[in-house]
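Record 1 of the preview.
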Amino acid sequence: MSQQTTIRKLAELVNTPVDKLIEQLAEAGMKFSGPDQEVSSTEKMKLLGFLRRTHGKTEGGGEESEASKKITLARRKVQEVTVKTGRSNATVAVEVRQKRTYVKPTEAQANEARRAGAAAGGDERAEILRKLEESRQRNLAEQARLAEMDRARNEENERKRQAEAAVRAQAEAEARAAVEDAEQAAAPVRTPIDESVGPAPGTSIRVPAKAGAAHPPRTAPAPARKEPDRATTAAKHKTRGSHAMVAGVEDDESTQRFAGQLHLSAADRARRGAARGKPKPRRQLEQSRGGSGSHQFERPTAPVVREVAIGEAITVGDLAQKLALKGGDVVKALFKMGVMATITQTIDHDTAALITEELGHKVVRADSEDAEDALLAHVEDVQGKTAPRPPVVTIMGHVDHGKTSLLDYIRRTKVASGEAGGITQHIGAYHVQTDKGVISFLDTPGHAAFTAMRARGAKLTDIVVLVVAADDGVMPQTIESVQQAKAAGVPLIVAINKIDKSGADPLRVKNELLAHDVVAEEFGGDTQFIEVSAKTGQGIDTLLDAISLQAEVLELKAAPEGRASGTVIESSLDKGRGPVATVLVQQGLLKRGDYLVCGVQYGRVRALFDETGGQPASAGPSIPVQVLGLSGVPDAGDDFVVVEDERLAKDVAQQRDAKRRESRLVASAGSRMEDIMAQLGKGEGQLSLNLIIKADVQGSVEALRHALVALSNEDIRINIISSGVGGITESDANSAVASKATIIGFNVRADASARRIVEANGVDMRYFSIIYDVIDQVKQVASGLLGVEIREEIIGVAQVRDVFRSSKFGAVAGCMVIEGTVKRSKPIRVLRDNTVVFEGELESLRRFKENVDEVRNGMECGIGVKAYNDVKVGDQIECFERIEVQRTL
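->
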């Protein structure tokens, strides 16, 4: 170290503040006034000795002082304790003081402690080793003892086995000896007989009862537990004397049992045999327990192929049970085939057959049509002789072409005036007595929603009369009626109505029908065209003559006697009369009191009504009547058959109902993976409108369902929660509350309890009598659910001709309006090469230094685009506005 060291440099070297270093020098007896004074080596050594003494070391760095061997730790902790003093609480401060002194041991004491610790550690290790050795010795002794016990047990088992083998060998020897003795006793006497000496009087040579008795079969020995009984039995037979075997006695069970008791009669033998009873099954049980391996389970060497009977539908669980498989295995196989079904769902016959063949089994169709077969045989047995019957004529055509008015004139009644809106909304069935004979007419609705009704009428009819208005021509429902008549294969007669009007053009109707392969007779075809007027009656007789002529050509016949059969034309639920079905009798005679089955409904005919309200006693072929007494409302188009008793009708109806339920379950379950993948993402934004439909007749329910469901599109889905015939009940109102549905009543009303629920819960319920109104109202409701759609409409386009720079607005585009009108308050887009490069709003719109609100086509203007200064010559500024449009179906 240099002799010129100052206090400041020394402080930097020892990393100590200058003031503290001056204080330490002062305490060591050296006075310095400032940090720039020099410090000599002697003063440094003196300072070092002072510091060593202060820190408990001698100057020579040897032994520590007595004070350095002790350290005292003082700890002080203050806590507050709350003490209850009467009504108030007082806080008392509690102070805890702790003082501990630790003394550092000397080197000799430390060495002594280490030696004591080593000795203690050695004793502990020795103790641990000793305990381990003792545990090992105990384990060895226990293993030796267990081995000795196992050896003794094995020796005992071996002795028992040898003893059992000896007993078994002895029993086999005894049984073998007993069998040989029995054979010797049963064998004939082989002693040579002297010919000179004849048999003694009263003796006879015994022969065996069976040829096989002398040579018993050499088979494997029976189980040991049976042989002693056989030997004992043989010994007993041997000791019965000379009456043991008797020639000529049959070797049956009773003879063997009582062979030595010849004095017993057959009745006594039977009585004693019954008294002895059958042997106890314990021996057989013991034999099955310890018997040979022939009765044990053997694993099949080839897969078992089963014949599985499957009906029209079957649940996955039942199919798994018939296949003797786990339900999960069948579900897994269905998933592999792409059918997603659980174990409780129902699958159809084809799917079940495919999965059964896939699993290696055979499929047999189950014949579960027992009731249907009985019904078919029952119907075939009662077919009688046929006789001519009246024709069934269906009036078809477009709406408001005069079909019902034409039928009114024929029937001399006013039917159309009773229909809501003047249009037919039901199938009307009438039979009319004319000068040409009895003719049954079916009047079908012409509205587009009643396609199913018209198709049903075309199938039931013998002749179709197509009514076409002479002043209106061929319309869409006219074409549809022609197609349905051709599909049903019935002859067509065209009645050109409203011929009395000034604008009538029959030739136009004929020419328009030529395009649909309906050729008039005057044009070389086979279709009769009759010009009529439902208002004046012109041509009505000619039309009836044409119908009669066509009926004679068809030679219509039916069985007028026997059990009746036919088709349901229409059905409804009457509040006072119950289910009412309008039926058309096609065969036989329908009488009051007959039992009939009609689709899934059955019952007894309580009453018959004709179209005038009368109650005929019976109805023959081609006669429409109303039937009361069914168990429920049948579906329009169902066939009815009269049966002998109610039992058969009930069985057939229940079987059809079960079959329909299975088909419905099959249709709703087992979705295919392809369908699910195709529908993913489609229904995310689709709205749903729930409806409950109640109507007066079944045909109207069908028409409303089809017409309303057809309104669905990709934006909204019309969901029919339930539909039925009859008034709106409390159950319908509760369903509407639960599903948030709208109730539609078509020619029906709600009862008091249903109205209370509707009013209390705010359910939307609407009454209608015309199908037009139903469709329009549902469209309005659905449109309200769809909401509004935001559309953008371009109102003007301006082309940039030049760009100017402004200190206030930045880039200002000098433009010419080339389309529409540019408005300052509307948003704009900047287009460059027909590509949008900016979308925003206008900051200024000027014309000749004046701010204007709009600039029309063909005028120049200055446009400042807000927050955009990159406008170039040739750009187009497109001005547009956003408008709200109500979405509709």
